[in-house]
Design brief:
Elements (H helix, E strand, L loop, with lengths): L1 E2 L2 H16 L9 E6 L7 E5 L5 E6 L14 H15 L3 H15 L5 H17 L3 H13 L4 H6 L1 H11 L2
Parallel strand pairs: 1-4
Antiparallel strand pairs: 2-3, 3-4
Helix pairs in contact: 2-3, 2-4, 3-4, 4-5, 4-7, 5-7
């Protein structure tokens, strides 16, 4: 579903879901998965409604031709692939395995911001698979990275989202 402002719609959905369920449901049915770029798709978010229907919401006018994921390399590419598996296909276990493999293969060569994104997504996947120790350790790893002020600003929402999930 294409909408003019998916980020605003996501925030509105998240507020309503928190009010209804007392938390942001990211696993099971219903659930909402935060806006993120996935391999082969435009940036957007997914909602699984109480009936189990998957809704993919993205920005009106964006197309896959503008896709920067195909140009990504190393750990950044792995994050896109893992997001496709975990968010678009609902296979959190395979997404986590893919991300772990990518961290092992590319972790030392990756920049701090890519590592932070990988650790934050690993924490989110760990919450969704009920591996709370991995979720906590992944968030700690992300927080321990030396990020520039610009990188910290770019990751503010991701850190807040994952911190909320891990600390509930």
């Amino acid at each position: 579903m294409a909408v003019p402002d998916p980020d605003s719609l996501y925030r509105d959905f998240a507020v309503g879901l928190r009010k209804t369920y007392g938390k942001l449901p990211v696993a099971g049915i219903p659930r909402i998965l935060r806006p993120r770029k996935k391999y082969g798709t435009v940036r957007g978010f997914s909602v699984v409604d109480p009936g189990g229907n998957w809704l993919r919401i993205y920005k009106l006018g964006e197309s896959e031709e503008k896709d920067s994921a195909e140009k990504a390399e190393g750990l950044a590419q792995i994050i896109y692939v893992a997001a496709r598996l975990g968010d678009a296909h609902g296979d959190e276990a395979l997404a986590l395995k893919t991300l772990e493999s990518g961290l092992t293969r590319f972790g030392e060569a990756a920049g701090a911001i890519e590592l932070a994104r990988a650790y934050l997504y690993r924490a989110e996947l760990a919450v969704r698979t009920k591996d709370h120790d991995l979720a906590r350790s992944s968030l700690i790893a992300a927080k321990s990275l030396e990020l520039t002020d610009d990188e910290k600003a770019a990751l503010t929402e991701e850190f807040a989202h994952v911190t909320e999930l891990v600390n509930r």
